[in-house]
Specification:
By secondary structure, this protein is mainly β. It has 1 helix and 7 strands; from the N terminus they run H-E-E-E-E-E-E-E. It has a domain of 83 residues: Immunoglobulin-like, CATH 2.60.40. Belongs to the small heat shock protein (HSP20) family. Keywords: Stress response.
């Protein structure tokens, strides 16, 4: 049985990049840190990540090729602490979200161990293009 791809549908022209984005996103979906995505209005969203234990300086937010990438790396404080139990994760992470065309990343706010990132979607312009037919 062969795998169906977007390229195998004759009416879906130029969607090969979308297929690659979907495959890349599926590979990077790990469970840490946990997150929520909420719709805050008709054209805005908020991503909230639980980043307890991280300071603002230990987090970075970038947009790379229409992909929102949040990275966290905790600094080693250099102390020789002895843990009897260590249940709080102290590991680095990278969480990615694919952004559709027209989605812009707004403000990022740290609040009570939660990182909030606001997104807005611009209204696409309606473009009607008339193609002239010439005689051959």
């Amino acid at each position: 049985m062969s795998k169906l791809t977007l390229g195998s549908y004759p009416h879906m022209l130029g969607f090969e990049q979308l297929e690659r984005l979907l495959e890349r996103t599926a590979k990077t979906s790990e469970g840490y840190p946990p997150f929520n995505i909420e719709q805050t209005s008709d054209r805005s969203y908020r991503i909230t990540l639980a980043v307890a234990g991280f300071a603002e300086g230990e987090l970075s937010i970038t947009v790379e090729e229409r992909q929102l990438v949040i990275r966290g790396r905790q600094r080693d404080d250099g102390s020789e602490r002895i843990f009897l139990h260590r249940g709080i994760a102290a590991r680095q992470f990278q969480r990615s979200f694919v952004l559709a065309d027209g989605v812009e990343v707004g403000e990022a706010v740290m609040e009570n161990g939660l990182l909030h990132i606001d997104l807005t979607m611009s209204r696409p312009e309606t473009v009607v293009q008339t193609i002239q037919i010439r005689k051959g």
